[in-house]
Amino acid sequence: MLRDITLGQYIPGNTVIHRLDPRCKIILTILYIAVIFCVTSPVWYVIPLAYLLVASRLSGLSAKRLLKSVKPLRFLLILTFILNLFFSAGTTVWVDWGFLRITQEGFLTAVHFSMRLVFLVAGTSLLTLTTSPVALSDGLEKLLSPLKVIRFPAHELAMMMTIALRFIPTLIEEADKIMKAQMARGADFESGNLLKRARAMIPLLVPLFVSAFRRAGDLAMAMEARCYHGGEGRTRLRVLRYTQSDLWALLATVGTLLVTIFAGMWLK
Amino acid sequence: MPIQVEHLTHTYMPGSPFSAVALNDVSLTIEDGELIGLLGHTGSGKTTLVQHLNGLIKPTSGRVVVDGLDLTQKGVSLLEVRKKVGLVFQYPEYQLFEETVAKDIAFGPRNMGLDAEEIDRRVRGAMEQVGLNYDDVAERSPFELSGGQMRRVAIAGVLAMQPRVLILDEPTAGLDPAGRNSILQMIRDLHAAGGLTVIMVSHSMDDISTLATRLVVMSRGELVMTGTPREVFIQQEKLRSIGLGVPQAAELTHALIAEGFPLPEDLYTLDEVYNAILALKKEGRAC
Asked: Does the ipTM surpass 0.95?
């Protein structure tokens, strides 16, 4: 039931992409997003498409797996498509029902924005699929640490992220267990109207909160017992280091970005 | 009301990289009035097996038949099954949620759609069965109670549904020796008085040796041994090979036999060993 949900969706592996420095991967993702926003016409989505295909080949994840991550967004996608299709201004009219009209421009905009969404989600999920949550928050902490000068709590933020991510599976498991325990006492979570279902959640939520607080207290105590006192002067077991492949990946991505910009200037 | 488990296989998250076989072709029949000790190392599939017995999880393949009802068939009322087979989870005190003890115990009967009078009668009955004083604790918050008392409340919550089979998953885990003994005594009383079929999951050999009428031993999702405690505990080597021990009394017996004392091989309770040693002494041997 709940146990079957994979959250954080990291799929362990040992490919070039998996081994890239998480800081580098975050930068690459930002550059990739820039690439998508530099695409000026639907035709030029071939560039991020080629980029994604190469990256997915290198990471050993199938393109199908990447597309699967877009699936939860299908309603948003359809909505985006329909809104743009009907409500964009344009001159070349294809269909005209008086109050609703489809124009060529509208159609192109609709395709354009839907593609943008698909590529955004597929590309960023490549990051979360190949980077463990811990590495991800480590990378984020490092990237944000220059902001410490202006008292930005980079370490605390990363620590909170790590802990939150660490506890998602635990809490899911716990919720699953409590749910089963209440179901064994005849609780019914699946039928009835909205109000009835909301009320049925109480026997699940109360124990879940109680145990979450208990766990939080235990964790804080355990961390203090091991001398945790914030990020100041804290060293790491695994120090992040850039390697040659990070450089190559960066060059390739910057190259892609430049190609996209020039392509857009050449053909609007 | 026998429970039949036929060729039960269960795989968690099939088809994903995390897929794991928790049960592999398990067949088992549980007769009325038995007190079964379900033994196995952590991760041997005990909990997965008992969760199948009241339809909380569905088999990947195989069947579970409770009182003639095949749980794998569509349209079987799971509420009916759960009325018959009560399952007390591991650390059941973490499922308490109501404002008062009485309300929490009433949760199950309420879900069964009983009237207020009957619910009240059952709450009182269940509290008596687990040895909680109604006047003292019924109106208190379950969160104010001690760990052992909370566990009793949780068990009462299942007993109030008046199941005919009671399954307890590690009922003594995390309790102090006094709490453990009183829970075990309670289980013994429930079994003796109510004609209840009891299945108790445990990995404590000492807990189970004096209690169970039959043992079922699991390892890595498979059923490896079943029989009376005497039949099972004599196979010390096999038990050790799957990461389980034997009761301390059986261990003592084996150690003494190895030292050359002619004791019977199949002793497993302290009383038996005590009497056997006394008998030896009477024969005039040096002990």
From this structure: no
